[in-house]
Amino acid sequence: MSAARKTRSRVLWYPALAAGAAVVVASLVAIAPISSATQATTAMRVPASGPVAVDGQASPEAHVLISSDSTVLTTDQNNVSATIEVTNTGENELKDLPVALYIDRDRISDEADLGDILDSDEFTASQLGTQVHTNILERVPAGETRTQTFTVPVSALGLNPSEPGVYALSVTVRGAGDPLIDRTSLVWGGVNEGVSTVVSVVLPVVLPASIESLATAEELSTLTGPDGSLTQIVDAASSSGGILAIDPRVIASIRVLGSAAPASSTDWLKRLATLKNPSFALQFSDADLAVQAQLALPAPLAVTSLNYANQASADESTTPLTVDELTKWNYSYGPTVWPVANSVSPTDTDFFKANGFSTMLIDGDNVSQLPAITTSTRATVGSVSSMVLNSAISEKTMDALDAKTDVEFSSARNRIAAELSLVGNAGIGTKQHLLVGLDRTTIGNSEHIVDTVNAIKSLPWVSVTSVTDGEAALAENGVAPSPLGSFEIADRSVPEARLNGVSQGIAGEADIGAFSAVLETPQLLVAAQRVRLMNLASAAHATPLTSFNTFATGYFERDAAILNSVSITQSTPINLLGSESKIPVYVNNALPFPVVVKVHTEASNNRLSISDPDENTRIEAASQSSVSVPVKTRVSNGDVSINVTLRAANDQPVGLPVNIPITIHADWEVIGIVVLGVLVVSFFGFGAWRSVRNKRKSRALNAGNHESEVD
Question: How far apart are CA 426 and CA 433, in angstroms?
């Protein structure tokens, strides 16, 4: 999460406020402003990590968030509404929570001041300002969230109509434990007269961060459905004229499915092609070129093949599509690099230029001595033709895009409005042109893409348009559409942990490449691993660093699973009866591709003679098969173990060896034959005896009958 959200769920260390909690007016209408002279000035400590205990008293496990329902509070409004959201993460219900609303009547002067007030972990009680409303939140059940809306007369805020700008609105919630606090921005009266700002947006066309390879048909159906993120991105682009930064993986995911692609995805692709918006290609999977430059790679990572997922080529009569065919698009910009915000070092531009990138989108905080008032989005940075993004506003789009509740989105929307108000007021009399990049880490899963763009468009002093139209609008106002000038790069290198993680991924790719020899078609696994590696380097996982670390841990666990995906599953002891036999060795293939293996065995002693199977054994994807190993015993009885290993067709070892214990009972074969022989002889002997006896009885009977007839 960005810095803008780290102060949510804060606990207020405020004994003086807690002592006065008995004076509460439980009404949405009766409002009693309290003189600022009566406000306590006790210092407060706000821990960034959540609730803490004070004087041995446990804090409630709860979080509070506040937002004004008005993006801009105009001077002719009679009332202002604010909504709070209290989440109880504990196991006990919270009841009868006193709630108080405050306004700080000191106008926030600039973006730095705004950050100090809203994002700081430490502040004084005086910054709460004047209490303007109190109420009771009756109950918040364990594990649930409750919202409450306050309606306050604008006159109670005590703001001067002649001093438009940004002010801080705060809420405290008290109950069993330390008070909770949250603060939000309130734009009062818009901006000063004569302020006008042009905003152009950059819209990343990317998949959700959770998709590591190509999107499935089911995923595409959701993403390109009526409320899907890809649909929203096209909607926002259509209404804003924004620059499209397209991940070729999105296009390839649709084309690779051929006729199996959902109708909504093919319709979406046609709609994307009809847009007139400027566009450029991101690297596949939006892999960050700054991290590749700082790892001193000889060239940018590139996809080698997508045949591992090429469903369109399932018909043998169809030739598989190449990477170029799957990703080809008519981009309006030439090769353009968009590094992760605040990650570019001065030497990275050498890597960019050497690999043909003629244009760079760079975060404003990554540019040295950039002027505060910007009349153009263009500049030369580090000797590269660049487009400079407004850092603060681009960063704050993360919270809006990532919002899970209405209050979260409203709070983030108001923060964006506050930033734009401060930027506008700083350049009174000068029409500014800002470039805002929507956050790439959250946009793929966002439900608020159109809402975020519309929030910017709704501000009275802001016009959202394409870069070209924005420059034309400034020209009409006498501002020449010329670059800001030439600037150096402020060193904002990639964090070491991320460099190490991607470096480890590159080393792991070599291990997977060696292992791929076991596949019937090794290139399938090699190509799939390259896509995974590029996703590891993706901007989607770059920030915050904790998010990258979590993703990298799962990535390397998956690498380990791949290297152990072809294995021998049998290890139970075997009783070997007889001097010659065949031992079954069971081999499991957990990969989604067929493999070809050879079984190699070695006895622990000379009691057993083993003949390895000469032929390779093919094992289907996600299946198990057995390989018969001929053996001969050299002794009648005894114990022996055989060490079984797998090898690829090129004799590359595969997986871990397995020892199978064997107990030899070769003499049981002799005993069995003797017993069987005795049984056979006995059977036939008994049969012969019975036959002779029966014949004798028959003869005796016949003789008796004959004598009777003579008489």
Answer: 13
Amino acid, res. 226: P
The three state secondary structure string of 17-38 is HHHCCCCCCCCCCCCCCCCHHH
Rg (CA), the chain: 38
Portion of the chain with pLDDT greater than 70, in percent:
82
Q: Tell me the one-letter amino acid at 480.
A: A
Is 197-487 a domain of CATH 3.20.110? yes
Tell me the sheet residues that pair with 633: 608
How far, rounded to the nearest angstrom, does the alpha carbon of residue 283 sit from its chain's CA centroid? 17
Residue indicated by tokens 């002779």 = 692
Please report, for the chain, how many H helices and E strands are present, in that order. Answer: 18, 30
Q: What is the pLDDT of residue 564?
A: 95
- Nearest one of 106, 133, 101, 131 to 117, comparing CA atoms: 106
Sheet holding 595-603, edge to edge: 574-577, 653-665, 637-647, 595-603, 617-619
Encoded amino acid at 328, one letter: K
State the average pLDDT for the chain.
85
Bridge partners (DSSP) listed for residue 168: 104, 185
The CATH fold assigned to 566-668 is Immunoglobulin-like (2.60.40)
Residue 312, pLDDT > 60, answer no
**Residue 569 one-letter amino acid:** T
Instruction: Please say whether the beta carbons of 125 and 40 come within 8 A.
Output: yes
Single-letter amino acid code for the residue at 427 = G
Helices (H), 6-138: 15-19, 111-119
* Predicted confidence (pLDDT) per residue in 210-257, tens digit: 999 999 999 999 999 999 999 999 999 999 999 999 999 999 999 999
Arch. (CATH architecture) of 3-188: Sandwich (2.60)
pTM of the model: 0.84
Q: Comparing C-alpha atoms, which of 1, 152, 146 is closest to residue 77?
A: 152
- Quick one: which of 181, 6, 9 has its CA closest to 102? 181
- Cβ pair 359, 386 in contact under 8 A: yes
User: For the chain, what are the domain ranges?
Assistant: 3-188, 197-487, 496-563, 566-668
Q: How far is CA 16 from CA 20, 54, 57, 179, 258, in A?
A: 7, 13, 16, 11, 68
* DSSP state for residue 54 in the 8-state scheme: B
DSSP for 609-636, written as a single string: EE----S-EEE-TTEEEEEEEEEEESSS
| CATH topology agreement for domains 3-188 and 566-668 | yes
Give the dihedral sign, CA 203/204/210/211: positive
Provide DSSP, 294-332. HTT-SS-------GGG-GGG-STTSPPPPHHHHH----S
What single DSSP character describes residue 691? H
pLDDT, tens digit, 9 for 90 and up, residues 150-184: 999 999 999 999 999 999 999 999 875 678 889 99
State both tokens at 36. 């600022």
d(CA 345, CA 290) in angstroms, rounded, equals: 8
